[in-house]
Design goal:
With 451 residues, the chain is of the alpha+beta class. 49% of the residues lie in helices and 11% in strands. It has one domain (4-449): Orthogonal Bundle (Cytochrome p450), CATH 1.10.630.10.
């Protein structure tokens, strides 16, 4: 059995390895590696050897069939003081215990009750929009997503701005650490560390205050925090305030950041593909008429489903994941020792012509005829996969559908000319230079706006 060091990868810098090219354009670098190298690409980031797996079956080995032999990689540890030991970062028996405790919270019937909250918040946002207004789309979508998240998680509205701002600052600093792979200890008072510490402090203050208020009034108010407070382990114990804080941060980031990013790319895609927008509007007119959508309407909107599925393929909110092997393993004809760092990229998988015809084109119709069942299991993985697949994926898809259908009935969004819009990998997939769009009100009949 050949060893992993016998694999040949792209030529890198003698001292820095592949870090300069990766930092310049991470997404383009990953695609280039997938196109020009073998299915297992050996890389070096400074002193750190990593292996990019580009075959869906290899990804399934790591995330699915042998997931117990892998843990989250060092990229996630760069934000340890923010994420804590929540379900997104914990490992082993503790992670399994927490997942079993939290999983019932995301039961389909329970999260369906949040549909009206999602529609109401979207309508409140639309009430502030005006004809001809130029909108900062990332900022607007972050505010919308955080408002929905804090309302469903905490049943409060007044904390969304503070928490959202703190998380945005913290994630930016974590992304900067990852892009350099060099970071000083958090107690070193650099400007970046001070920004990160302030964000973490504001986040903790806001969340602990809400936990304390809810413990003082322990009745079930119908939100996720109430369920977490009432949840008991098999031995009858409940979560401590620290663990509640960690779980809520993980759930907020999963619900707020990833969905805000998804919303950003939805509007951009529809502006780029007017024929897709026209078909989407026609379906909404046929099913909804002039009324706002409800959760009960969603199964009747198959084209809307295909548009969102394709958007998550073309612009996966989390474009890369990392794992570290806890024991030796053999894969693809090579031997890898314990401690091997592995990169897995939904961005690479979703843009691989082996799995998707014309992957750089936006084609919702490709999902007709059960394409998802014909693909290798992990060729499409916007919410990761295996035992650690995102718990809130059903919640996220429902939110995306309701927000999309509520907005598109009222407004058309057009990209302000002259912008360079390209995706950038930080912690998630945001537009590198931002995105500004101009608002145009629709008539009462969406079909009248198709010309």
């Amino acid at each position: 059995m050949p060893k992993q060091n016998e694999l040949v990868g792209p030529k890198g810098n003698f001292l820095l390895g592949h870090l300069p090219e990766f930092r310049k354009d991470p997404l383009a670098f990953l695609i280039k590696c997938a196109q020009e190298q073998s299915e297992i690409v050996p890389l070096r980031m400074l002193h750190l050897p990593v292996y990019l797996f580009t075959n869906a079956d290899h990804v399934e080995y790591v995330l699915g069939t042998h997931s117990r032999d892998f843990v989250k990689s060092r990229m996630y540890k760069l934000g340890g003081s923010i994420f804590g030991n929540g379900i997104g970062m914990s490992e082993g028996d503790f992670w399994l215990r927490q997942r079993r405790l939290i999983q019932p919270i995301f039961h389909r019937e329970r999260i369906s009750a949040y549909g009206q909250i999602m529609v109401d918040h979207t309508q409140q946002m639309l009430a502030t929009w005006q004809e001809g207004q130029i909108l900062d789309i990332p900022e607007a979508m972050l505010q919308l997503s955080m408002g929905i998240t804090t309302r469903t998680l905490f049943n409060v509205d007044d904390a969304s701005h503070t928490i959202g701002k703190a998380i945005t600052v913290a994630l930016k600093e974590i992304a900067n650490r990852f892009s350099t792979l060099i970071s000083l200890p958090e107690n070193v008072p650099t400007p970046a560390n001070l920004r990160y510490q302030r964000a973490a402090r504001h986040l903790d203050e806001g969340i602990y205050r809400m936990i304390q208020q809810r413990r003082a009034q322990p009745e079930d108010t119908g939100d996720l925090l109430s369920l977490l407070l009432q949840a008991r382990h098999e031995d009858g114990s409940r979560m401590t305030d620290q663990q509640l804080r960690d779980e809520m941060v993980n759930l907020i980031i999963a619900g707020f950041e990833t969905m805000a990013v998804a919303f950003i790319w939805i509007w951009y895609v529809l502006a780029q593909y007017p024929e897709v927008e026209a078909k989407l509007l026609a379906e909404l007119q046929a099913v909804l008429g002039e009324r706002t959508p409800t959760v009960a309407d969603l199964p009747k909107l198959p084209y809307t489903e295909m548009v969102l599925t394709e958007m998550l393929r073309a612009y996966p909110p989390a474009p890369m994941m990392g794992r570290e092997a806890t024991k030796d393993f053999e894969l693809g004809g090579y031997h890898f020792p314990a401690g091997t760092e592995i990169w897995l990229s939904p961005w690479v998988l979703h843009h691989n012509p082996r799995y998707f015809e014309a992957p750089n084109e936006f084609r919702p119709e490709r999902w007709e005829g059960n394409l998802l069942k014909q693909l290798p299991k992990f060729a499409y993985c916007p919410f990761s996969g295996g035992p650690r697949q995102c718990l809130g994926n059903t919640y996220a898809v429902m939110e995306a559908k309701l927000v999309l259908t509520t907005v598109i009935q009222k407004f058309q969004l057009k990209v302000v000319p002259g912008q360079v819009v390209e995706p950038d990998f930080t912690f998630t997939l945001r537009p590198k230079h931002g995105l500004k769009m101009v608002l145009a009100k629709r008539s009462l009949s969406p079909s009248a706006q198709l010309n």
